[in-house]
């Protein structure tokens, strides 16, 4: 393993903490679901852990969140903090979107660098980065019995994650320092996701071919 790609503990804790806080804030918005304290905390923790768990399972490694006590402590604290401040922060609606985008960016950068550190080629490394980025949001939506945001028009979750992960891989191929490359990756991911929300950027909806074109005989 190239030590340049070793993920510092603070970076992993930051990603988990932001993800858990955002997940709890998101869940606490749904008053009709009547979620209790434990329910909101579980959804927050699952959001914070989801991306890293998926990443490490794909890479056939022991999940990083199980290697130290700090991950669960930070995730629980961040989830409770997000839940308690939800009503105050809800007045600043865009903040949840920004935190969501930041979660995607952090996990995308960590997942991509970890995949590269294990010697994966560039394209599989990007794939690992993307699924790491979106894993938490998928688990969050499943636990809330909601349509998975990733699969609907207007989310651009995967597009933002792919843009960030691809930029990181390209920069590392030119020996850009890993911290700088990861920072740019996170910034690009957040930028694409936030701009997509602000300007309603979407991918084309699915279409079916209703019939084969007809050609007139001369």
From TrEMBL:
It is a multi-pass membrane protein. It is found in: Cell membrane. Its main location: membrane. Pfam families: Gly_transporter. It comes from the Bacteria. Residues 10-86, 98-172 form the Glycine transporter domain. InterPro entries: Gly_transporter. Keywords: Cell membrane, Membrane, Transmembrane, Transmembrane helix. The chain crosses the membrane at residues 7-28, 35-54, 66-85, 92-111, 123-143, 155-174, 180-203. Belongs to the UPF0126 family. This is Trimeric intracellular cation channel family protein.
